C-alpha cells in the first residue's frame, strides 16, 4: 500500500442516492452504502476526482474543447489524444502544449507504433492477438522516440499501450532521458481487470490506469484494496470500448474508485483514429459534445449532493506510488552508422 491519506470523516449530509427519497415514500427498500466499500485513497491534494476530455486530436479540436469548457463551466484537469505523437507536427504539439499550459491543464499524447497500426496480422483476427502492444524492438524504439520528442516540446503526460513501453519510459524518466515529472498513463485498450494486474502496472511505472468501463463497483473496491494509483474511467465509453454509459453511478464510482479521473467519452460516434483532415467536422463536433456530456455528468453529481471532493484545477501528479526496483543502467554503445569512409 502507499502513503496516501485515509478517508476523511463523513460530511454531516452524505450524498443522496438516486431516487432514494421517492422510493422510500413508496415503501421500496433502499440499500444503504457500506462504508467498507469506500476507497481509502485520495489524490495528494486530498481530492477524490479529476476530469479528462479524451480524443482531442489536434490544436483545432483543443480550441473547441477549451472554448466549450469555458462556456459550459466544465472544469478540466487533463486533455488526452489518441492518434499518437507521430500524427502531429512539432508546431501542432507546441501549440497544444502552450494552450494547455496557459490554462494549467495536463496534456497527454499517445506514444508510437502499436499493434492496430502495424503489419501484424494477429490483431485482425477474432482473438485480437497481441492487441495494441509494440511489436519488436523497432516499435518499442518508436515509442521511446515519440516520448523524447513530445516531452522536449513541452508535453508532460504520455499514454502507453504496452507493458514493456511503460517500464522503459519509467526507467527513462529515472535516468533523466525524459523529465522526471512526466506522468505515464495506461491505455483503456490494455487496462487491467483485476487487483493483481492493476498493482503490477503501478509497479511498472503507471501514474494513472484506464480500466474497462464494464468493471463492477465491487471490482473497483477490490482494486482499491491493493493499489492507490489513480484510476481513469469512461463515464461514457466509445463504442469500440463497449459503449457503456454509467452516469447514474458516477457518485458511487467516485466513492469506490477514488482517486478517479472521470473521462467523458461518447457512444454512438464513429472512430476518429488516426485523425486527419478528412475527419475534421466529425472530430470537432464530437469534441464539443464530449464537453457537454461532462456538464451533464457534473450536473448529476451536484443534484445528488456529491460534487464535493474535486481536485483543485492544475493538479496533475499522482502522489507516492509503489514501483519495481530498476536494474542498474549499463550504457550500451550506440551503433556505428556506416559512412563513405568505411566503404
Structure description:
- This protein has helices at residues 20-25, 59-72, 90-102, 136-152, 163-174, 195-204, 217-224, 250-257, 280-303, and strands at residues 49-53, 78-80, 106-110, 157-160, 183-186, 208-210, 231-236, 260-264.
- It is 33% helix and 10% strand.
- The chain has 343 residues and is an alpha/beta fold.
- It is built from 9 helices and 8 strands.
Question: Strands, helices and their partners?
Answer:
Elements: H1 20-25, E1 49-53, H2 59-72, E2 78-80, H3 90-102, E3 106-110, H4 136-152, E4 157-160, H5 163-174, E5 183-186, H6 195-204, E6 208-210, H7 217-224, E7 231-236, H8 250-257, E8 260-264, H9 280-303
Parallel strand pairs: 1-2, 1-8, 2-3, 3-4, 4-5, 5-6, 6-7, 7-8
Helix pairs in contact: 2-9, 4-5, 6-7, 7-8
Number of strands: 8
Number of helices: 9
Q: Which sequence of strands runs across the widest sheet?
A: 1-2-3-4-5-6-7-8
Unreliable runs: 1-12
Structural class from helices and strands?
alpha/beta
Helical proportion, percent range: 25-40%
Distance between the termini: 58 Å
What is the H/E order?
Answer: HEHEHEHEHEHEHEHEH
Radius of gyration: 21 Å
Question: What shape does the CA trace take?
Answer: globular
Amino acid at each position: 500500500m502507499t502513503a496516501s491519506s485515509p478517508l476523511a470523516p463523513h460530511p454531516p449530509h452524505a450524498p443522496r442516492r438516486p431516487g432514494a427519497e421517492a422510493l422510500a415514500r413508496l415503501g421500496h427498500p433502499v440499500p444503504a452504502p457500506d462504508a467498507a466499500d469506500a476507497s481509502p485513497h485520495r489524490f495528494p491534494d486530498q481530492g477524490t476526482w479529476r476530469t479528462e476530455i479524451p480524443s482531442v486530436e489536434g490544436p483545432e479540436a483543443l480550441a473547441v474543447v477549451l472554448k466549450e469548457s469555458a462556456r459550459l463551466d466544465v472544469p478540466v484537469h487533463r486533455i488526452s489524444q489518441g492518434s499518437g505523437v507521430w500524427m502531429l507536427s512539432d508546431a501542432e504539439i507546441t501549440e497544444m502544449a502552450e494552450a494547455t499550459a496557459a490554462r494549467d491543464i495536463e496534456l497527454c499524447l499517445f506514444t508510437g507504433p502499436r499493434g492496430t497500426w502495424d503489419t501484424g496480422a494477429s490483431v485482425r483476427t477474432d482473438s485480437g492477438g497481441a492487441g495494441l502492444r509494440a511489436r519488436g524492438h523497432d516499435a518499442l524504439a518508436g515509442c521511446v522516440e515519440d516520448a523524447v520528442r513530445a516531452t522536449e516540446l513541452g508535453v508532460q503526460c504520455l499514454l502507453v499501450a504496452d507493458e514493456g513501453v511503460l517500464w522503459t519510459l519509467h526507467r527513462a524518466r529515472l535516468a533523466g532521458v525524459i523529465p522526471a515529472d512526466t506522468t505515464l498513463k495506461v491505455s483503456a485498450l490494455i487496462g487491467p481487470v483485476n487487483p493483481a494486474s492493476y498493482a503490477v502496472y503501478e509497479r511498472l511505472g503507471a501514474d494513472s490506469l484506464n480500466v474497462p468501463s464494464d468493471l463492477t463497483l465491487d471490482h473497483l473496491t477490490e482494486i482499491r484494496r491493493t493499489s492507490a494509483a489513480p484510476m481513469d474511467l469512461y463515464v461514457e465509453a466509445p463504442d469500440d470500448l463497449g459503449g457503456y454509459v454509467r452516469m447514474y453511478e458516477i457518485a458511487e464510482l467516485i466513492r469506490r474508485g477514488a482517486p478517479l479521473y472521470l473521462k467523458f467519452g461518447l457512444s454512438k460516434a464513429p472512430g476518429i483514429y488516426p485523425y486527419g483532415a478528412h475527419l475534421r467536422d466529425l472530430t470537432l463536433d464530437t469534441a464539443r459534445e464530449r464537453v457537454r456530456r461532462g456538464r451533464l455528468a457534473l450536473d448529476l453529481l451536484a443534484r445528488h449532493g456529491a460534487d464535493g471532493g474535486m481536485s483543485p484545477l492544475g493538479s496533475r501528479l499522482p502522489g507516492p506510488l509503489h514501483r519495481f526496483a530498476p536494474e542498474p543502467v549499463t550504457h550500451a554503445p550506440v551503433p556505428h552508422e556506416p559512412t563513405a569512409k568505411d566503404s
